């Protein structure tokens, strides 16, 4: 068989073409216009409600309550925010949510990293069983235990105190699994063995070796946990009272009145939600890859 | 030397538990124990004013619960809302993941744009959607009437309001599930698609016969988590209409869920014992649903294994006239 024009002239060319083809296959098929079109429609649906917060928050209630409500932002944001502040203590809510979410993130990341270290490097007996049990706790619906939890918080005088929101969220099964995967991959056993030979205690190894290696993973987990704590609603609305709220409790208060001023509600939501959404978008690369890495494959 | 090893051996074994302990203890104290203890409280008439001082009343709360038409209404709503929210949510997520699995320009942009709803709090999402679905001034009805379609009563229509609430859940969770599916899809070896391509399988066929079976584990995982989430739907129905009717889940309780009914009984009607009975019953129901799900998955696996065995026997029967493609499949 003769080699026709256009076909690879030399063996190296043929290899290069084959390699290119393999690479193309490995990284997936190229997206056509239809894929981009479908994705654009989906993205539009997923972004529009967020854009509409901005539209409503910057308009007056009268402007929104028309047959054809506006689709572009107006100029009433400051006025609406001021009214929202009168209805709920939003500065206090922002402050509370910030420290509650930070404590939750810190605590959950620490307990997860410790447990992840134990389940990846300490050679525990029945390691698989323990990991299975931790994963199993993801199937336990914690919210259904709110009544005993409320009774406990009442007994220790923490009802109404944002600390009551911190305590139940100091553990995260997802976090344990995530940190275990991360450490198993990022920290070679030989490093641990070398440190042992040098006579380092487990505590020293944890603080001096594990934490520095785990810190990128811990950062991703901290962002996810902070966001979840910030958005938590069910337990805070039970455990806290309106005079000392977190942001979600404050938002729910805005909607509780007999007269609904949508623009004021949305202004409150705008102030309480945008910080997390903006941070999420800015840190999006690390967060999305974190979710993908932590996924059960 | 021996002493040294002994000390070290003991200490690592023990230290494993030591490092696991904070998670286990905190989870038990604030997660598992309250859940179990709700069974005890459900046997008492504990009230909000005196939460721990309830008197033992036996199964009274449960007999009352089973005769309570609002409980059955809440159970029915939870199931229908659950199906409406979980089914479309996971199907759309699969489609989105499949789209994201193409080689895309601006890959990161698409991923973030799709996951952003997950960063929005449920409370915020619900309040935005309740405005979009507003009967007279909402954009959705505005859009429908522009198209010449009749406006829908998204708030008091039973089916319509449940669709509206399910759409909020779907909106928030599609992106998250899509990313989980995407992660699983990226672990599938490209050779499988290549072989299917050579056999002339269409893209859709490849999706059904390769992609779906390969990520079955992840699908089961998301079904479990969404089922648990679906059984606990609370904030969406509470805030959808807002105001004082929030707790009853609409004027005619048309979307009052079990979690919402528990909240109403426990906190608005002061009946913590009765609320605990609702919570504990919900827990048992979740476990039953999950157990049934596991059995179904096992049954499905057994059936598909049997199919493979049958196919193999057939393949060995025709092996005297070997066809390359069929041999490869076997």
TrEMBL record, chain A:
Residues of the ABC transmembrane type-1 domain = 94-283
Q: Provide this UniProt record's keywords sorted from A to Z.
A: Cell membrane, Membrane, Transmembrane, Transmembrane helix, Transport
Q: Which PROSITE patterns match?
A: ABC_TM1
Superkingdom, according to UniProt? Bacteria
The record's subcellular locations are: Cell membrane
Show the stretches that span the lipid bilayer. 31-54, 98-119, 131-154, 166-184, 205-226, 264-283
Q: How does it sit in the membrane?
A: Multi-pass membrane protein
**What protein family is recorded?**
Belongs to the binding-protein-dependent transport system permease family.
| Protein known as | Carbohydrate ABC transporter permease
Organism from which the protein derives:
Tessaracoccus palaemonis
Automatic annotation (TrEMBL), chain B:
Chaperone as UniProt keyword: no
* Signal sequence annotation: none
List membrane-spanning regions. Answer: 16-37, 79-100, 112-134, 154-174, 215-235, 277-300
How is this protein positioned relative to the membrane?
A: Multi-pass membrane protein
Domain of life where this protein originates = Bacteria
Which keywords fit this entry according to its UniProt record?
A: Cell membrane, Membrane, Transmembrane, Transmembrane helix, Transport
One Pfam family name from the record?
BPD_transp_1
Query: Do you know which InterPro entries this protein is assigned to?
Result: ABC_transporter_permease, MetI-like
Q: Which residues form the ABC transmembrane type-1 domain?
A: 75-296
Q: What's the chief localization of this chain?
A: membrane
Q: Which CDD domains match?
A: TM_PBP2
Q: Where in the cell is it found?
A: Cell membrane
Supply the PANTHER family for this chain.
ABC TRANSPORTER PERMEASE PROTEIN (PTHR30193), INNER MEMBRANE ABC TRANSPORTER PERMEASE PROTEIN YCJO (PTHR30193:SF37)
Entry similarity comment: Belongs to the binding-protein-dependent transport system permease family.
Q: What is this protein called?
A: Sugar ABC transporter permease
What organism is the protein native to? Answer: Tessaracoccus palaemonis
């Amino acid at each position: 068989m003769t080699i026709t024009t256009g076909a690879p002239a030399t063996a190296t060319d043929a290899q290069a073409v084959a390699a290119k083809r393999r690479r193309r296959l490995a990284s997936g098929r190229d997206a056509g216009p239809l894929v981009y079109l479908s994705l654009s429609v989906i993205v539009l649906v997923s972004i529009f409600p967020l854009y509409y917060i901005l539209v409503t928050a910057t308009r007056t209630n009268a402007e929104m309550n028309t047959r054809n409500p506006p689709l572009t932002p107006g100029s009433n944001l400051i006025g609406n925010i001021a009214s929202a502040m009168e209805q709920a203590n939003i500065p206090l809510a922002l402050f509370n949510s910030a420290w509650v979410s930070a404590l939750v993130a810190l605590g959950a990341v620490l307990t997860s990293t410790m447990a992840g270290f134990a389940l990846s490097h300490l050679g525990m007996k029945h390691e698989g069983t323990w990991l299975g049990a931790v994963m199993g706790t993801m199937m336990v619906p914690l919210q259904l235990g709110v009544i005993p939890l409320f009774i406990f918080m009442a007994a220790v005088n923490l009802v109404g105190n944002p600390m009551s929101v911190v305590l139940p969220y100091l553990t995260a099964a997802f976090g344990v699994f995530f940190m275990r995967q991360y450490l198993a991959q990022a920290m070679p056993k030989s490093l641990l063995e070398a440190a042992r030979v040098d006579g380092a205690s487990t505590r020293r190894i944890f603080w001096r070796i594990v934490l520095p290696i785990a810190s990128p993973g811990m950062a991703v987990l901290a962002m996810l946990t902070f966001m979840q704590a910030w958005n938590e609603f069910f337990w805070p609305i039970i455990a806290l009272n309106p005079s000392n709220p977190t942001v979600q409790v404050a938002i729910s208060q805005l909607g509780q009145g007999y007269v609904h001023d949508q623009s004021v509600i949305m202004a409150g939501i705008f102030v309480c939600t945008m910080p997390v959404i903006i941070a999420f978008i800015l840190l999006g690369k690390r967060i999305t890859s974190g979710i993908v890495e932590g996924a059960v494959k | 030397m021996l002493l040294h090893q002994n000390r070290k051996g003991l200490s690592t074994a023990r230290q494993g538990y030591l490092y696991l302990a904070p998670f286990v203890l905190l989870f038990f104290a604030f997660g598992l124990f309250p859940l179990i203890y709700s069974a005890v409280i459900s046997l008492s008439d504990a009230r909000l004013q005196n939460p721990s001082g309830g008197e033992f009343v036996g199964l009274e709360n449960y007999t009352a619960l089973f005769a309570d038409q609002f409980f059955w209404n809440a159970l029915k709503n939870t199931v229908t809302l659950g199906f409406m929210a979980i089914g479309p949510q996971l199907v759309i997520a699969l489609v989105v993941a499949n789209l994201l699995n193409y080689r895309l320009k601006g890959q990161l942009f698409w991923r973030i744009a799709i996951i952003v709803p997950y960063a929005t709090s449920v409370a915020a999402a619900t309040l935005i959607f309740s405005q979009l679905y507003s009967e007279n001034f909402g954009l959705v009805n505005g859009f429908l009437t522009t198209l010449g379609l009749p406006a829908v009563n998204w708030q008091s229509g039973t089916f319509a309001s449940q669709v509206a609430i399910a759409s909020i859940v779907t909106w928030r969770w599609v992106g998250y599930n899509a990313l989980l599916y995407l992660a699983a899809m990226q672990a599938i070896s490209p050779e499988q698609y290549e072989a299917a391509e050579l056999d002339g399988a269409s893209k859709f066929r490849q999706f059904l016969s390769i992609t779906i079976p390969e990520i079955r584990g992840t699908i089961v995982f998301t079904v479990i988590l969404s089922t648990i989430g679906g059984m606990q739907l609370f904030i969406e129905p509470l805030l959808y209409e807002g105001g004082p009717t929030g707790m009853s889940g609409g004027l005619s309780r048309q979307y009052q869920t079990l979690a919402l009914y528990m909240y109403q009984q426990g906190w608005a009607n002061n009946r913590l014992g009765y609320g605990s009975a609702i919570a504990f019953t919900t827990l048992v129901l979740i476990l039953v649903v999950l157990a049934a799900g596991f059995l179904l998955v096992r049954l499905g696996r057994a059936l598909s294994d049997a199919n493979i065995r049958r196919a193999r026997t057939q393949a060995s029967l025709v092996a005297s006239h070997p066809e390359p493609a069929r041999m490869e499949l076997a």
